[in-house]
Amino acid sequence: MSFACCSSYKQCSREGMCVSKHEHREECDYQKKLAKGLNFFKGKELYFEIDGRMFHVGKRGDYHRDTRSLNQQERETFKQQFKEGSIIWQERMLIEKCIDEKVSDTDRAVCRVFLSTEKEKYNIHNYNGRALTEKTAFMIRDFFRNHDIGAAVEYVGSKASKTVVKSEAPQVKADQKIPETRKKAEVRIDPKAEPIIGKQISFDDFLASMVC
Predict the structure, then answer these.
(1) pLDDT tens-digit profile of 127-183?
(2) Which are the contacts of 128, defined by CB distance < 8 A and separation ≥ 6?
(3) Residue 55: what are its φ and ψ, rounded to 5°?
(4) What top-level branch of life does the organism fall under (predicted)?
C-alpha cells in the first residue's frame, strides 16, 4: 500500500489511503515525516513557532527535571496562558518548519530551554525532542524574555566532544634487533664447604653439608 502526498481529497483517495486527520492540502505529508524519522501516529504534541522554526514543548518534571508530553488538562492550561499575544504555538507539526540543528565537534547540540510561567514549568527542545545548540537555545531564551516570560538555558551535555589521544607503541622494524639486558646472578662460594666430586647427592644432603 502506498501513501502518496496529495493536494486534494480525490487524489488522496485515488492513489492511496491518507492517514492524516487534518486538512489534506496542509497535512498529507506522511512520506516526508517518515524521511525525517518522525512518528506520524504519535499523540498530540505542542510546539512553539519561533523565527520560522518548530520547537517542541513538554512538561518539566520535578524528578531529574525530565520532559514528558502534556496531558489534556495541561494542554488546556498551556493554551490559556498563550492564547493572546505575538507568541505562536501549534498543535501539529508543520514539516516545512522542522529544521535540524547543524552541529560539529566544537558546537554540539547540548542545550534545552527552561520556561517558567505563573502556572507551569516547561522544557523546550527542537521539533524532534532533541537538544539544541547553544546559539539556538540563547535565541529562544531571549525571545521569551523579550515577552516578559522567564526563560533560561540548561546544558545537558558537554559543549565540545572530547579528543581521544591514543598512545602508539614504538615501531620496530623486522630486521632491527632489540638489545637484551641480562642481569648477572651473584654466586657466593663457601670456602669451608668440601667439594663434591664424583657422585650426585640429594638436595637434603647438600643443605646438610652447608651447615657448620
Answers:
(1) 999 999 999 999 999 999 999 999 999 998 887 666 555 656 566 566 666 666 666
(2) 36, 37, 38, 56, 98, 100
(3) -130, 130
(4) Bacteria
User: The pTM is what?
Assistant: 0.59
Whole-number Cα distances in Å, 139 to 53, 59, 134 = 12, 20, 9
Cα separation values, 25 from 5, 11, 28, 114, Å: 9, 11, 7, 35
Cα of 103 vs its chain's centroid, Å = 12
Look at residues 208, 63, 203, 67 and name the one whose alpha carbon lies nearest to residue 132.
Answer: 67
Q: Give phi and psi for 69, each to the nearest 5.
A: -70, 150
Kindly write down the DSSP assignment for every residue of 75-90, as one continuous string. HHHHHHHTSSSS-EEE
Half-sphere exposure of 120 (CA within 13 A, CB side): 21
Could you give phi then psi for residue 91, rounded to 5 degrees?
Answer: -100, 0
| Burial (CB count within 10 angstroms: exposed 0-12, middle 13-18, buried 19+), residue 117 | middle
Closest C-alpha among 131, 128, 102, 98 to residue 114? 131
Query: DSSP readout, 106-117?
Result: SS-EEEEEEEE-
